[in-house]
Amino acid sequence: MSSDTHLSEGVRPPSAAHHPPPTDQPKRRDRVLIAINIAIGVIIAYLLLFPLGMLLFSSLKDSQTKLPFQVPGFTLDNFVDVFTSKRVVDVALNSLMFVVGTVAVALVISVALAYLFERTDIPGRRFLAPSTLAPMAVPATVMAVAWVLAANPTNGPIAIAIEKAFGLTINIYSLPGMVLVAAIFGVPGMYIMLAPTFARLNLEFEEAAATSGATWWTRTRKVVLPLTMPGISAASMLLVVIALEEFAIPAILGTPGQIYVFSSLIQASLQPPSGLANYGQASAYGVMLVLLSLIMIAVYRRQTREAHRFQVVGGKGYRSTPVRMGPWRYPVFALVTLYVLIAIIIPILTLVWTSLTPYLQPISLAHIGDLSFANYSSIFTNPQLTHAVINTLVISVVTATLTALAALWLALASTRAGRLGSALFDASFLVFAIPSVVLGMAVLFLYLYLPIPIYGSIWIIIIALTTRYIPRGSRMIQTALLQLDTGLEEVGKVSGASPAVVLRRVIFPLVAPAVSSTWLWVFANSLGELPIALLLSGADNRTVVVLLWDMIGESADYPEASALAVLLLAVSSVAVWWINRRGFQQHT
Q1: Which of 280, 310, 340 is the last residue of a domain?
Q2: Residue 488: what pLDDT?
Q3: What is the DSSP string of 391-456?
Q4: Shortest CA distance to 351 belongs to which of 170, 158, 161, 185?
Q5: b/e map of 181-190 (b: 16 or more CB within 10 Å)?
Q6: Phi then psi dihedrals of residue 169, to 5 deg
Q7: 536: helix, strand or coil
Q8: CATH classification at residue 178
C-alpha cells in the first residue's frame, strides 16, 4: 500500500501517534517545580523568619527576667534603655575598636602575604603558604585558649620571651590582645579571597611604571594597590561582618577584664555569672547587631557586584612573572617564618604541652618528666566528658548531613527552578547577617514558646547550626552546579531520560565532590561552634566547646581543658585537610 493510501485513510504520522501532547510534560514539570519552591520557602521561613520574628517580638517586651511570651503588651523601653545607658557607649566603642583593629591588622598581614606568595620569588612558599592557612583548621575557642596559655604574663612563653627581650609586659586579657588573636584567626579567610586577585594581576602594568622610572614603592602604591582595591575592600567588608559576630575570642580574652563587645554582652545578659537574665535587653542588643550586620552585608554585595569595573586580566598577551626580590628574599622569608612561629606554632605547641602536664607550668626541659596522658585518660573515663564528646560528634555529623542535603536542594532550586527558586536562594543570604549568638538566642526563645519538646536536647542545637550553615553550603554547591554544561542534561533528556533520572545519573555524580566538601566543612565548623551550643546547652546536650568554656571560666582547669581542645583540634584538622586534599585533586 502506498503512502498516499495511508494518508487518505487518516493515519497519523508516528510522532503524533505515539507521543502525548507537547504541553502536558512541561505543565507537569512546572507544577513539580512550584511545589519544590513552596517547600523550600516554607523551610526558609521556618528556619529563618520564625526565629527573627521571635527575636523582634522579645525586643518589644518589657520582659526583663521573664520570658517574652509571658509578658502582655508591647513597648520600646528596651531600646530606650539601651540607647540611654552609659554601658552601651562603652560596648559600642569596644566593638568599634575591636572590629576596626581586627580588620586593619588582618588586612595588612593578608595583603602582605598575598603579594609575597603570589607576586614575588620569596623562597619556601610551598611550606609557608599552607602554614599561614593553618588557623582555618583551629576552632576559634581553641585558638583563644591556645593564646591564653602562650601569652599569659605568668608562664606564657611568648609573654616571657617579650619581657626578657624588650622589658615589656603584655596582657592578653585586653582589647589589643583580643584584636591580635582575632586578626590572626581572620587572616586565612582574607588571604584566600585576596590571593587570586594578586595572582591574576598583569605584570605589564608594573613594567610600564618601572620603565617610566617609578620605584617599587611607587609602583605598588599607584598601580598594584589601586587595581586590587575592589578585592581588598570586599574582603574587608566580609571580615567586618565576621568580626562583629565573633564571640569566642572576645568572650574568653575580654570577660576576665570585663571588656565586652556586643556579642559577648548578649551572652552575658542571657547567662550572667551572677544575678538574673534580662531577656528583653539582650533581644534589643541582638536586633541592633543584626541591623549592623545587614548594613555590612549590603556594602559587601555592592562591592562584589561592581568589581568587574576593575578587571585587568585579558585573554590575550597575559603573563605573570614573579617580582625579583634580590637580597631581600631571605630577610623577608625570615620575617614570614617568624610570623608563622609566633602566631600559630608556639600557641599550638603550648596547648599540646599543657594538655600533657598535671598543672600549669612553663615549657621547660626540667618538666619533661612530669608529662603524661592522664588528662586524655580522664576524658574517656569521665562519664560527663565522654557524653560531651559523643554529643559533639552526633551533632556535627547530623548537622553536616542535613545541611548538605538542604544546601543541595536549595542550590538546585536556584539553578533549575526559575525565578522563584533564585529568589528563595537569595533570601537565604540573610542568614549571613545574623550573628551566631543572636541566632542562638532567637532559636532559644522560639522553642521555649513552641510546643515542640526539643529544648535541652541535641536537636535544638542541630536546628540552629543547620540554619546557620545552609546559606554558605548552598553557595558552595551552587558554584559546582553553575560550572556544569547544560548540554549534559540535554543529552539525557534527548535520549528519553526523565528529569529524575537526569538528576540521579548525570547531575548528582558531577556535584558529589562539592556536596562531600560541604559536608566536611560543616562538620569541621560544627565541632567548634561555641555561642549557639552555649546558649542552647542543658544538662543532656552539652558539647565539648561548652565544657571548654566551663573549665576555663569556672574551674580554671587548663590542663584538662587543653587535652579536650587538642582532641577537638585534631578532628577539625583532619576534616579541613581532607577538604583541601579533595580540592587539590579536583584541580589536578
Answers
A1: 310
A2: 57
A3: HHHHHHHHHHHHHHHHHHHHHHHHHHSHHHHHHHHHHGGGGGGS-HHHHHHHHHHHHHHSS-TTTT
A4: 158
A5: bbbbbbbbbb
A6: -105, 120
A7: coil
A8: 1.10.3720.10
What cell numbers appear for 543 in the block?
A: 558539647
Identify any residues that bridge with 323 across adjacent strands, giving them in sequence order.
120
Model confidence at 354, pLDDT cuts 50, 70, 90, reads: very high
Residue 118 and residue 32 in one domain: no
How many other C-beta atoms can be found within 10 angstroms of the C-beta atom of residue 50?
Answer: 17
CB 250 within 8 A of CB 258: no
Tell me how many helices (H) and strands (E) the chain has.
29, 0
Shortest CA distance to 187 belongs to which of 225, 242, 148? Answer: 242
Which of 205, 186, 194, 192 shows the shortest CA–CA distance to 115?
194
Number of folded domains that form the chain: 2
* Residue 196 sits in the same domain as residue 296: yes
Give pTM, 2 decimals: 0.81
Please report the DSSP string for 312-347 in residue order.
Answer: ---SSS----PBP-GGGHHHHHHHHHHHHIIIIIHH
- Is residue 3 pLDDT above 50, yes or no? no
Written as one letter, the residue type at 120 is: T
**Residue 492 pLDDT > 70:** no
